Amino acid sequence: MNLQNSGEEKIPASLDAVWAFIADPGKVGHCFPDVVDVAVQDPTHFTATVNVGVGPVRGKFKIKVEMQPDASARRMGMKMSGGGFGSAVDLTATADLVDGGDGTTLLKWGGQAEARGPIAAVGGRVLDAQARKLIEQAFSNVRRQFES
Predict the structure, then answer these.
(1) Which of 19, 78, 95, 116 has the fewest beta carbons under 10 Å from its own?
(2) 117 dihedral zone (left: phi>0; alpha: psi -120 to 50; beta)
(3) Structural domain tally of the chain?
């Protein structure tokens, strides 16, 4: 099953501050919803363990993440793959930063995922709604880091 989502967050911080945050694998990893653990391997690779629940399918997913920063374009790409309890997910995502002009930064994001196994069998609308909720929560968590 293939899913696509996109959105935008307005972050109350400068472009440089937001870039420094999203380029840090430890900080980004802890923005994943329901994160249990983040293990940073190097400046562009980390593994996150997260609790996942879609309909009756619940458990822990281990996700390997490769960050693909392009500092000059203020664009962060990510390739993620992982799974758990007989299911697997592959995800690609991008986050583009744009100066909001008023001391804020717009974080424009997009992602595409492919799910296989029991989690994909839950059904398109249920899985799509849950995936969108989790993605929005992750980027909202980035924004919240700058609001406190």
Answers:
(1) 116
(2) left
(3) 1
